Every structure is written in structure tokens, then in C-alpha cells.
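seq as requested:
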Amino acid sequence: MNNAISKVAITGASSGIGAALARVLAAEGASVALLARRGDKLRQLAAELEQRYPQQRFFVQELDVGDIAAILPALQAVQTAMGGLDTVIANAGVTSVNAAGKGNFAEDVKLLEINLLGGMATCDAAARLLREQGHGHIAGVASIAAFSGIPGSSAYSASKAGFGHYLETIRLELQRKGITVTAIYPGFINTE
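C-alpha cells:
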């Protein structure tokens, strides 16, 4: 296994892409910190991984990335508990079907707070911690919707486009600091 991914933190790890990433990385030998809002699902996943890979460490940290102020302390707790941190994957996100002009703009605002601002705040906190150690990897999960809008999901498409551009930009800022940044643009995935 590549040492660059030996201690990984994943937001949105309670289901979907985040849970799948945790399983794949654990199979590759990584110790994984699982972060999400649903602590019960995180604990179930951690128990599954601990049973399969008893030689590795799995840490559960409840976190709602919509609470921007909670992100840095959560990642600091993970870094301390794991004895370091090599990779942070900003994966937490939500989706919503909300046609423009239907009177549900508050839903769009909440989606942007989680997908865009929560993703950015996760990456910013990760960059702070990884700068201190002089190396690391940040990955962010955007979406193919960043390139082509989805009717009825304009806020989702906008959030993923914004997050993708943010990731591309911080890649330029952090590359000289020994930190790699990867923007991931998955297509449609059948998940909750």
C-alpha cells in the first residue's frame, strides 16, 4: 500500500460513495476515520471494518459539515486519535430536486451550505493541518453535474461546479506545499 493513503479521513462516510471508499481503502491497508452526521451508521461500518481488518484503526467522528465551525475541531480530533493524517476526502453532500421558481429556495440554500461551503471548509481545514506537517492529499467529490446542469437540480449542479473550481484552484495554491489535491467527478450513482 502507498504510504500516502495510510491514514485517511472521509466525510459523508455513513453511506454511498463515502462508505464504499472506506471499504476500498481499508482493503488496501489504510486506517480510516469515518465522519458523518449519522453516528449509528458510522459505528456499524466501523465494526464491520474492524472485524475484517483487525490490524488497522477505524475512528468514528460525528460531523455535520453544514456546521462549518465544527469541521476543523473534528479533523483535529481525528488527527490526534489516528496519530497523524495523510489524506482527507471531502465527500459529504446532499441532493435535492427543486425546480426554479417553485418557492423552495431555502432548500437550495441548505444544499449550497452543505455541498459547497461544507466541502470548501473541509478542504480548508485539511489544508491547515496538512500544511503544518508539510505533506498530504486532499480529495473532493464533485459531480459530472458540474459540467452539465440537471433540470430540477440547479442548486446541486451549481454547488458541484463551484466545488470543482475551488478544488482546481487550491490544487495550484497547495502544490508547492507538498499537498496534492484531486477533484473527483463521478457520474450518476444509485445510492441513498
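The beta strands are 7-11, 31-36, 58-62, 87-90, 136-141, 179-184.
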